[in-house]
Design a protein that fits this description.
The complex is a heterodimer. By secondary structure, chain A is an all-alpha fold. Helix content of chain A is 77%, strand content 0%. The mean pLDDT of chain A is 92. The chains are: A mainly alpha, B alpha/beta. Bound molecules: adenosine-5'-diphosphate and magnesium ion.
């Protein structure tokens, strides 16, 4: 594909614009912004990747990963403002997930230690970890608020903070990881995963594309579970003080 | 109250604020050991908040609370909360059966509640024995209150804080619970602090009474003071309640 054919692809932006105009959906502005942003952002990433791939310098790879973690943290922390030190907890979660997955992939030579593999896989891992963090934080803050009475009951009977929040913690970990697990049950039946489709279009052998997709799916499974558990166990203690009292103002913002 | 009595709980200039609102103002006084003290006052006076402070669920903004002559900060919070049991008005339950709720205090300590012990507790508070496997969703407000009291008793607290536990009970159940609390007080020497809206109950059950209005303790003394209050605010409150 070249830029001429790509510019023809703009037809697919014009169709929704026209429909929006005719039907007065008032989606024109957002559609234009979305189109322009995706063009700029993806092209920038494309050129950046090309530069990093050509440079073959580990430092650049590291820098890219740091950038990804920074962006993911920036995005997810808004959902966890009520949890003290959420920024550092998120950074630590992303770093652990990244080191764990890449450690296994590279350590066992499942993937080669080249930027072509490390960067896209890291992107998927950190991106998924970010989504899971948001899902978890949303659910956890809601659970804690909805079940404050039960938390207080357990504390009042001489339970520890961990006992008092255990049910909410487990519910939130489960609820945030279930969509990942469920979606993998039906994968390939309705829709081909985007990455696999891309590889097939780019000319890869479908079975090889499938193998690679499976690797990614399993990585995402680990990412989902590890993210929720790590974040959960780091977050709940901040809801209590050293006298084992629920610090309410922190949840209620 | 006579100074010779041992104080199970003592409060010194206890103030408490939450969300920028002052809920308790300079509360000073004590609950004598082995006695029943009733606590009355209009809604919003801060009675429930006082219980939360004594049980250690919340921290005072200023002032000191002593339990058995030691500042509550000296106790491990878990130890304090087992020593000073509280049954709150809301009678919150965890999802599950009557037995699961009853055994909760022991489960938190990694222990099990024996079946016959559970049955004895149900007898004690006047719940049917065959309700033991019932889901708490099927209990009435009154049955929940009874279960909540039984559950608090599992920890065998030295001090028992009861928050309007008979408010949702019919007359017969109310009398049963009153008798039960007197029995616990007499048999085990448990110190009882009992918040109630029922002034007759406050007088007949209480050795002593506290009247709280707008976060302040306005009068304390022998519970018969409610028959003939001297304080103007208390007079107005009693008149309003009896009207
Ligand atoms: N966590 C809280 N944050 C803010 N205000 C509270 C909180 N808990 C109780 N209050 C307020 O404190 C006052 C006293 O409440 P409470 O102790 O429940 O009184 P009572 O039990 O005598 O009816 C009320 O005005 C109530 O709205
Ligand atoms: Mg109350």
């Amino acid at each position: 594909m070249n830029y001429l054919t790509l510019s023809l692809a703009l037809i697919f932006v014009i169709i929704p614009l026209l429909l929006s105009k005719v039907l007065r959906l008032e989606l024109e502005k957002d559609t234009i912004i979305a189109a322009i942003r995706s063009i700029i952002q993806l092209l920038a990433v494309g050129y950046l990747l090309q530069y990093v791939f050509d440079a073959e310098n580990m430092l650049y790879i590291l820098l890219m990963i740091v950038l990804m973690i920074a962006a993911a943290t920036q995005n997810a922390r808004r959902k966890g403002r009520s949890i003290q030190g959420i920024t550092w907890k998120l950074i630590l979660t992303f770093v652990v997930v990244e080191v764990l997955t890449q450690g296994i992939l590279l350590g066992l030579s499942i993937t080669p230690p080249t930027p072509q593999y490390i960067i896209p896989i890291s992107g998927m891992i950190i991106g998924n970890s970010m989504v899971l963090s948001i899902l978890f934080l949303n659910r956890f803050t809601a659970e804690v608020e909805d079940h404050e009475d039960e938390t207080e009951l357990i504390l009042s009977l001489g339970g520890t903070p961990k006992q008092a929040i255990h049910r909410q913690l487990i519910t939130s970990i489960k609820a945030s990881t279930i969509p990942t697990i469920e979606s993998q049950k039906t994968i390939g039946l309705v829709q081909l995963p985007g990455m696999m489709s891309g590889q097939i279009i780019a000319g890869a052998d479908p079975v090889q594309a499938v193998q690679f997709q499976l690797l990614i799916l399993f990585l995402i499974l680990t990412t989902a579970v590890v993210t929720s558990i790590l974040l959960g166990y780091m977050s709940y203690p901040t809801l209590f003080n050293e006298r084992m009292q629920l610090v309410k103002s922190r949840m209620r913002e | 109250m006579p100074v010779t009595e041992t104080e199970a709980v003592r409060l010194e200039n206890v103030s408490y604020s939450a969300d920028g609102q002052q809920i308790l103002k300079q509360v000073t006084g004590s609950f004598p050991e082995g006695r029943i003290t009733t606590l009355v006052g209009p809604s919003g006076a801060g009675k429930t908040s006082l219980f939360r402070l004594i049980n250690g669920l919340r921290a005072t903004t200023s002032g000191n609370i002593y339990v058995q002559e030691k500042p509550i900060e000296v106790y491990n919070p878990v130890e304090l909360r087992r020593k000073v049991g509280v049954a709150l008005q809301s009678a919150t339950m965890i999802n599950g059966s009557v037995f699961e709720n009853l055994s909760l205090p022991l489960k938190l300590q990694g222990k099990e509640l024996a079946q016959d012990e559970a049955l004895d507790l149900l007898d004690l508070v006047g719940l049917k024995r065959d309700s033991i496997q019932q889901n708490i969703k099927d209990l009435s407000g009154g049955q929940r209150q009874k279960l909540s009291i039984a559950r608090t008793l599992v920890n065998r607290p030295d001090v028992l804080l009861l928050d309007e536990i008979t408010a949702s009970l019919d007359r017969v159940s109310q009398q049963d619970i009153e008798e039960l609390i007197i029995r616990i007080n007499q048999n085990y020497g448990t110190t009882i602090v009992w918040i109630t809206h029922n002034l007759q109950q406050a007088i007949s059950l209480g050795d002593y009474t506290w009247v709280m209005i707008e976060g302040e303790v306005v009068e304390t003394g022998d519970s018969s003071l409610l028959n003939n209050p001297s304080n103007e605010q208390v007079k107005r409150f009693v008149k309003g309640e009896n009207a």
